[in-house]
Amino acid sequence: MGRPRSDGAKSVPPVRIGKPRPSTSGRAWRVRAYAPTPGAPNGRVSYRNPETGKQTNQVPAAGETLDTLFDNVERALDQRLALAPTKDDDGAIVVRNLTNLGEIYLQSLRDKKRSEAYLANRTSLLARWVYPVIGDVLVEDWSVADSEKVLANARAGERDAQGNVVKAPLGPARAEDLGSTLAGLRQTAHMKRTGGRWLSLDENPLEGVSYGRSAAIQGASRDYVPPSHRPATEKVLAAIAMADEISKWAWMSLCVLIAAFCGLRLSEQLGLRVVDIDLRNREIDVNGVWEVPRNAEMPGYSRERYRRPHTKNRKRRTVPYPGTAHSLLMKRIREALDLAPQTTEADLIESIEKERERRADLAGGDWRDHHVATTEEDWLFPDPSGVPPTKEGFNDEWHIIRDAISWKTYIKYRNMRHHAALWWKANGHSWGLIAEYDGHDVKTLLSYYVLASEDERGKSKDILKGL
Question: Which portions of the sequence form the region Disordered (predicted)?
């Protein structure tokens, strides 16, 4: 007999009842199939949705019988597979399973304007290695064991019963790409959404899972930057000269010079203001970065750019600049402050120091802590809008310069930092001092440039020669 209805109408008895299942309240519940009614002419199956905890009704799809739907729901609940869809951020009906998480992840890559090759790579990894191994489970049931199995299968490859290769094993670089794809799925699941996160922040299906490639050079850490990827000084100087000649931005050559000989990250370069330049001591105060959300160029999103008042690793530092940059900086500061070309160095120093004092008074302490509106700041490297460009806009301009001097495309602009560190070392600076300038600790710095066994191998050879 069916349960009594609150409106007094006669209830429809279930034609099939599943096994008892525990609920959070402690009371058991069961899947029930109900015969056709005027409101549900093909019948319906009622169950508690494991994602929401709410009672859910599902009707048979075209060509599906009520018994088939009932059996599928029971099997899905037993195996913790995705069931009925729920509403997500924009009100769309979304099943919170791994397949739909993958689609949201790929869409986020499109929104970030990733290349077609990058998207094709990630799509292939998901379809070939992730979905077939983990299956269409609910995201909340994605486990560490699932992630480890995906990577283990990919590294081993797949063969049929006759021993023929069905899927070739992935090499270290592709396995790292696969691990990065899983990390992208995890980050997507952790995102705050109107309908709630798909995974809480304390749930990590990649906890303890290692997917980084091992170093290809004996004695090197995985962060080691081989000499072939370090910009040569002659190429750097050629890039500075070419920027001065062909760039649409008058400041581009100075920006490249600061990158190559001061070791600033691109976001730190673009975030520089006049007040950050210490002409008296010939130093740059690095205390913030230029931020542009990745979706800033997409329709319907804010295009606001802003300066974050701390660096990537939250270490403020001062870095000396080379003598060749001094006159260029003074010229750029005059332009930024709209001063006459004949303004003396002493006047520029006085202007900057007074501005630092003013900001310190307003901040009640450190001048770096005083916030100035983006449009009112005196930027060193602005585009025609009056604020610094996006990283994408900067890179487009850099690529023109790079191609004009036949710069190797695999040596990225960010590797200018490596040039600065090794240029300092070649000029007699200690690794400790270079680490202060670079913003890293000494251990991290050495992992980039020094083979761990370099000194020991030399000593070992000397000993062996004497035996």
Answer: 1-58
Answer whether 372's CB lies under 8 Å from 355's CB: no
Contacts of 227 (CB under 8 A, 6+ apart): none
Contacts of 82 (CB under 8 A, 6+ apart): 76, 95, 96, 97, 136, 137, 138
Contacts of 199 (CB under 8 A, 6+ apart): 139, 140, 142, 186, 189, 190, 205
Identify the sign of the CA torsion 43, 46, 51, 54: positive
Q: Please state the φ and ψ torsions of residue 199, each to the nearest 5 degrees.
A: -135, 140
Are 262 and 365 in contact by the 8 Å Cβ rule? The answer is no
Structure tokens at 404: 């004009």
Kindly provide the b/e burial profile for residues 263-286, where b requires at least 16 CB atoms within 10 angstroms of the residue's own CB: bbbbbbbbbbbbbbbbbeeebbbb
450: its two tokens: 């020094």
Domains detected in the chain:
14-84 (no CATH), 93-190 (1.10.150), 236-410 (1.10.443)
b/e map 308-333, b = 16+ CB within 10 Å? eeebeeeeebebebeeebeebbbebb
Q: What pLDDT digit, counting tens, does each position of 79-135 carry?
A: 655 554 544 544 455 678 888 899 999 999 998 888 888 999 999 999 999 999 888
Contact 139, 190 (CB under 8 A): no
Beta strands 44-48 and 165-167 are unpaired
The reported pTM is 0.55
Query: Rounded distance, CA 302 to CA 174, Å?
Result: 35
Mean pLDDT lowest among 13-22, 43-52, 407-416, 427-436: 43-52
Q: Are strands 158-159 and 165-167 parallel, antiparallel or unpaired?
A: antiparallel
Q: Collapsing DSSP states into helix, strand and coil, what is residue 16?
A: strand
Coil, helix or strand at residue 451 = coil
pLDDT digits 0-9 by tens, 150-200: 999 998 888 888 878 888 888 877 888 899 999 999 999 888 776 667 887
What are 130's two structure tokens? Answer: 């992730």
Tell me the C-alpha distance between 227 and 224, whole Å: 9
Q: How far is CA 32 from CA 29, 62, 156, 399, in A?
A: 9, 20, 44, 63
With CA atoms as reference, report the closest residue to 215 among 231, 227, 206, 226.
Answer: 226
